[in-house]
Amino acid sequence: MLDIGFSELLFIAIIAIIFLGPERLPEAMVKVAKLFKQIKKYVTTAKDTLEEEMKISEIKQEAIDYKKKFEEANEELAKVKNLTNLDGIKTEFEEILNNDKNETIKREKVDFTKLKEQQDLQKSKDLNV
Predict the structure, then answer these.
(1) Which residue range is the domain that position 48 belongs to?
(2) Sign of the CA dihedral with 63 first, then 69, 72, and 78 last
(3) pTM value?
(4) CA quadruple 26, 28, 31, 33: dihedral sign
(5) Number of domains forming the structure of the chain
(6) What are the start-end ranges of the E strands in 30-115?
(7) Which pLDDT tens digit goes with each residue over 3-22?
(8) By the 8 A CB rule, do 16 and 28 touch?
(9) Are residues 13 and 49 in the same domain?
(10) Are residues 28 and 65 in the same domain?
């Protein structure tokens, strides 16, 4: 955890003996060990919390991605639904076209009948002349 070499550890021990004395040194070492243990526990807890948060953020991102996919699928379904509604519109359009064709045929028939009558009249006039 703390990259301390043997010479550095020996130097710290000599300083501790000088300042604390041999009577209080064991008690101080226990306190230092507890302090390092507590620090290690806090670091581990923080690390676990960060990893958990990262997993949560990954899960959130996956949820957002799935939500987008569902929305796209929903839009596609809406388009398909609109296409089925177009069948009714297509039927109405075909009916209008058929009615229009029938009207056109009737008009052409009437026009043809009038034209034939005019031709017959013309022929009869030509014969009478």
Answers:
(1) 9-54
(2) negative
(3) 0.40
(4) negative
(5) 2
(6) none
(7) 778 888 788 888 888 888 88
(8) yes
(9) yes
(10) no
| The two three-digit tokens of residue 98, written as one number | 């058929």
Q: Which residue has the tokens 């359009």?
A: 93
3-state helix, strand and coil shares in percent for the chain, rounded to the nearest 5: 95, 0, 5
Q: Is the model's pLDDT at 70 over the cut of 90?
A: yes
Please report whether residue 48 resides in a domain: yes
Structure tokens at 73: 């699928």
**pLDDT > 80? residue 101:** no
Quote the CA–CA distance of 85 and 78 in Å, as a whole number. Answer: 11
**DSSP type of residue 75:** H
Residue 18 resides in a domain: yes
Question: Would 31 be classed as within a structural domain?
Answer: yes
> Which residue is listed with tokens 């075909």?
94
Same domain, 43 and 68: no
